[in-house]
Structures are given as structure tokens and as C-alpha cells.
């Protein structure tokens, strides 16, 4: 293993490709559960979120404009929410529920990373306002969760799926995140972005937590292999490929599954 890690080096492009392939396999499992696809196929997808969280940390650290980076993810989060809502409305394929929106997870992560930057800058320049704004950004996903919960406790809203979708689409609530509290890996990996060993340790601890809880999410531990092989290079550019591929492959697999099930 040590020899492999020394001789084989991966760029961010390579890690993205690995993540995309594993994600595609994972979504094949999700979409074809009604056909009895074996549960072990789902194992391939367990390292995916960790890989994309790591990629997001690297991307956010090196992007020329963090504001544009965040805006891209926020718009993608909103569009993905409406896409899955209308797709389910049109197709009426109740056997598969579309909860997919990795853009929400990644946007929540950028909020927290931006918060960390503000706190760091505030401490350096003794700017209390920056520090307070930084903490506010970090807490925003939790505040959003409370606001969404309050809104959904209203019977009128709860009985109107369109209003519910509209509210949830715009709110970066952590309880709506596809990967739940696992999103907290992003700020942790960002804090230690200059120490790969601690990043690996954080992932291992998270994996052991899920193993202790009896969740197959512990398989995320295998994400450390490509992360350990990261060579610090961006590699080939594919800035917008993921933004297109992610929704496109989900729609395609969902429609194929619905068609086969109904015919």
C-alpha cells in the first residue's frame, strides 16, 4: 500500500472522476431498489460524500472568487430542489424518493468555511464584527433548520407541497442536507487544510463513529486512499461538468427506472 501511495499520484480532477464513478454506481442502487438490486451495491457510494467534501475544501481554498463559488452552489441547490420536486410531480413514480441534493451539503460547507475565514481574519485584525459575522455564518445552517421546522409545523404549509418545496429550496438547513451532520466534516477538513494527516485522522474518527452506530457509512473510510494520494495539483479543468452531470444522471436513471417499472 505504501508503495502504491508513493508511486501513484492523483490530482483533484482524478479524485472527482473517482467520486463521480462511485456516485453513479450508488445512484444505480437508489433508482433500481424496486427491482431488487442487492444492497451491497450501495457500499460503493459510501466514500463519495467524503471525497466531494475534500474536493470542496481544496476548491474553496484556491478559488479566485469565494463569493462566486458560493453563489454557484447556492443557485445549483435551489435549481436541484425544484428539479426533483417537479420531476416527481410529473412522473408519479412513488417507488423511488428523490432526496438528492449534494449542492445543499456543499453550500452549507462553504458557509462554514467562509465563517472560519471571517473569524480568522477578525482575530488577526482585531475586528469584532468579522468574528461575529463568522460565527453567524457557521450557525446559519442550524438557524435555518429551526426556521424550516417552525414553518413546517404550520398545518397550512404542511398541507401544501408547493409552498414546502419553495421554502426548503432556498434554506441551507443542515437537517435537510443529504448527508446530515456528516456535512460538519467540511469545516473540520478546512481548518486542517494544511495538514493532510489530521484530515485523514478526522475521516477515520468519523468512520469509526458510524461503525459504532452500526451504519454502513463507515465504508467512507476508504475515501482516505485517494485523499492520501492527492498530489496538490488541480489537473484537467472540469469546472462546470459536475454541475451538469449530477442532475442529468439522476434524471436519466430515475426516468429509466420509472419506465421499466411501469412497463
UniProtKB/TrEMBL annotation:
Q: Which UniProt keywords apply?
A: Membrane, Transmembrane, Transmembrane helix
Q: Does the keyword Transmembrane helix apply?
A: yes
The portions of this protein that span the membrane are 12-37, 43-61, 73-91, 97-116, 128-151, 163-188, 200-228, 240-261
Q: Tell me which positions the record assigns to the signal sequence.
A: none
Tell me which InterPro entries the record gives: TraX
- Keyword set includes Transmembrane: yes
Q: Name one Pfam family in it.
A: TraX
The protein depicted here goes by the name TraX protein
